[in-house]
Amino acid sequence: MGVSHSGKLSAMLACKCPRCRVGKIFYGSPYSLKRQRTNQVCSHCGLYFEIEPGYFYISMYISYAFSVIELLIAAFIVYFLIRSESPWFYCVVLIPLIVLLSPINYRYSRVVLLHLFSPTIRYDPKYRINS
Fold first, then answer.
1. What is the pTM of this model?
2. DSSP state of 25
3. Hey, what long-range contacts does 118-121 have (CB within 8 A, 24 or more apart)?
4. Could you state, in order of their start, the residue ranges of all structural domains in the chain?
5. Which residues pair with 41 in a beta bridge?
6. How far apart are CA 78 and CA 75, in angstroms?
7. Are 125 and 22 in contact (CB under 8 A)?
8. What is the full DSSP assignment across 104-125?
9. In 53-64, which positions are buried (b, 16+ CB within 10 angstroms) versus exposed (e)?
10. What is the pLDDT of residues 19-53, one digit of tens each?
11. Alpha helices by DSSP H, the chain
């Protein structure tokens, strides 16, 4: 059973279209030298991803929440391993982590927005035909 025949969580992890769960939401790798971008239209079912102008601005808040959670977890792990009370030590550890995880947060904030918070996009099995 491949990713295209799996559930919502698998489609989200693979960054697949929320309507057909086959087409890719993004073009390129998150860590490539070229700028990553969101496809405008699903290559399989033709869904236009940006429902209205500025739709993806909301994903900034989701990305921010991801960053806060990741940094809190990392700070607790560093504290329990090193027990440092120096704020500079945490800056040296956590700022590169923010930079390293920002491409992933960018992608998955848009995926979460499309799959979980879109009022008009729902999974439709009829779009899986010929996948």
1. 0.84
2. S
3. 118/18, 118/51, 120/51, 121/18, 121/19, 121/47, 121/51
4. 8-130
5. 48
6. 5
7. no
8. HHHHHHHHHHHHHS-SS----G
9. eeebeebeebbe
10. 999 999 999 888 887 778 899 999 999 999 988 88
11. 8-13, 59-82, 87-116
